[in-house]
Amino acid sequence: MNMISVRLPDKLLGQADTFARQMHVSRAEYIRLALETMNREMEAGKRGERLKSLSLRLREESMKVNAELDGADDFSAP
């Protein structure tokens, strides 16, 4: 495991200490958990953006197909 050094504002560090105590974990563990949570949220956001992009492309293709079908002759059997 790697080690880093980070400068944090007093208020932010105080909040981290308070929440770490409430969760009965060390400050380091609390910060690790916070980073893991943020990373998951970022990944979820990326997935959401990819799904949105795919959905828009699918909608465009669907609209093209609908437009082609609207212009077609009646396909019902005689």
Notes on the protein architecture:
- The protein has one domain (12-67).
- It is mainly α.
- The mean pLDDT is 87.
- The chain is rod-shaped and about 70 Å long.
- It has two helices and no strands.
- It has helices at residues 10-23, 27-70.
Keywords:
mainly alpha, 78 residues
List the helices and strands and how they pair.
Elements: H1 10-23, H2 27-70
The value of Rg in angstroms is: 26 Å
How do the SSEs run, as a string of H and E?
HH
Tell me the total number of β-strands: 0
Largest sheet report: none
Q: Tell me the quaternary state.
A: single chain
What is the total number of structural domains?
1
Q: In percent, how helical is the residue content?
A: over 70%
Shape: rod-shaped
Instruction: Give the percentage of residues in beta strands.
Output: under 5%
Low-confidence stretches: none
> Mean pLDDT score, rounded?
87
| Count of alpha/pi helices | 2
CA(first)-CA(last) distance: 75 Å
Helix/strand structural class: mainly alpha
Give a short summary of the structure:
This protein is mostly helical. The chain has one domain.
